[in-house]
Fold this protein.
Amino acid sequence: MLSELTIKEFLKKTASGSPSPGGGSVAALSAALAASLTVMVANLTIGKKGYDNIEDEMKSVAQDAIQMKRELVLAIDNDAIAYKDVMTAIKLPGNSEAEKRHREEMIQSRLKQATLVPMAVAEYAIRIMELAGKTITKGNKNTITDGAVGIMMARTAVLSALYNVKINLRAIKDNTFIDRISKQVKKLEQNTLQREKELLSNIDL
């Protein structure tokens, strides 16, 4: 499992000639790191003098970020699995018309799944941006830049995951699916860039 590799092992495998882990897994890792930083800032605020009035809110931020981090760690592997499933479908026999139809159906099904995995990563990541935003406006001022890095990592995760969504959509033939996902992609991209700018404007360095 990719998520069980050490940092050095993950980097080495990413740099190898293997297509996995690829951009999708790295996007999920970026979002998981953003979540981890958010939890860190929240935890460094809880129990600290002068932050008593927002302790419950920071506990909630930490809990939400921890839950999303768990899902994102799973997505690191799920993205690689989804890619492998697409490749397996492509290699199915296509000698007869029936085999060709079956292969095409399997390819399309697997492509949709390979699209939904990074789509979920992007949705988690933009939620993490908002949580990280709370930590820089209300959290421990000594960790404000850690929260900022969390926001930027989350933004990168959103945009990176959506690139993986877009390239998969190019091979999908279901126009209804394409239209639905494309609208979500456009909205997420716009919201992410706008929110990053707004959230980081709260930092005065």
